[in-house]
């Protein structure tokens, strides 16, 4: 992957992440699939790592099981969970985000949410 291709992919990831509504989460895989590269979930994680310290709501991206695999990048082991709980996110008994209640799919926004990026002019 060239630097230009990587930077473009990262920028597109960040555009999706900034659209995740408060109180909702998405997964690395949902973002990758939405961007047309389902196999790039790990690269989505790299893009989020590169955005550390920005205003992007990276805490709203979890792994496919709802686990907080990115929590180590938030300055403490509980900051990501605290941010999600402050937005009303609930967790299952084993400490994972309840994806049935809170999953946001960038390809299928609900009423009142921003349309997919491809539809934005």
Helix-strand blueprint:
Blueprint: H1 3-17, E1 26-27, H2 28-34, H3 41-50, E2 61-62, H4 79-86, H5 99-102
Parallel strand pairs: 1-2
Helix pairs in contact: 1-3, 2-3
At a glance:
This protein is mostly helical and 121 residues long. It is built from five helices and two strands; from the N terminus they run H-E-H-H-E-H-H.
Question: What can you tell me about this protein's structure?
Answer:
Helix 1 packs across helix 3 and helix 2 packs across helix 3. Helix content is 36%, strand content 3%. By secondary structure, it is mainly α. The protein has five helices and two strands. The chain starts with a helix and ends in a 19-residue tail after the last helix.
Shape: globular
Question: H/E element string?
Answer: HEHHEHH
Rounded average pLDDT = 89
The largest pleated sheet is described as: 2 strands, parallel
Strand content: under 5%
* Number of H/I helices: 5
Q: From the helix content, strand content and strand pairing, which structural class follows? A: mainly alpha
Low-confidence stretches: none
């Amino acid at each position: 992957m060239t630097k230009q291709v990587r930077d473009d992919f990262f920028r597109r990831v960040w555009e999706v992440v900034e659209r995740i509504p408060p109180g909702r989460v998405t997964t690395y895989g949902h973002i990758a699939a939405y961007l047309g590269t389902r196999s790039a979930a790990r690269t989505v994680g790299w893009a989020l790592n590169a955005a550390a310290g920005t205003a992007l709501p990276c805490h709203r991206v979890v792994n496919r099981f709802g686990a907080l695999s990115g929590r180590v990048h938030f300055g403490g082991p509980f900051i990501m969970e605290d941010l999600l709980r402050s937005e009303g996110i609930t967790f299952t008994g084993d400490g994972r985000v309840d994806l049935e209640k809170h999953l946001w799919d960038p390809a299928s926004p609900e009423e009142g949410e921003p349309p997919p990026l491809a539809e934005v002019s």
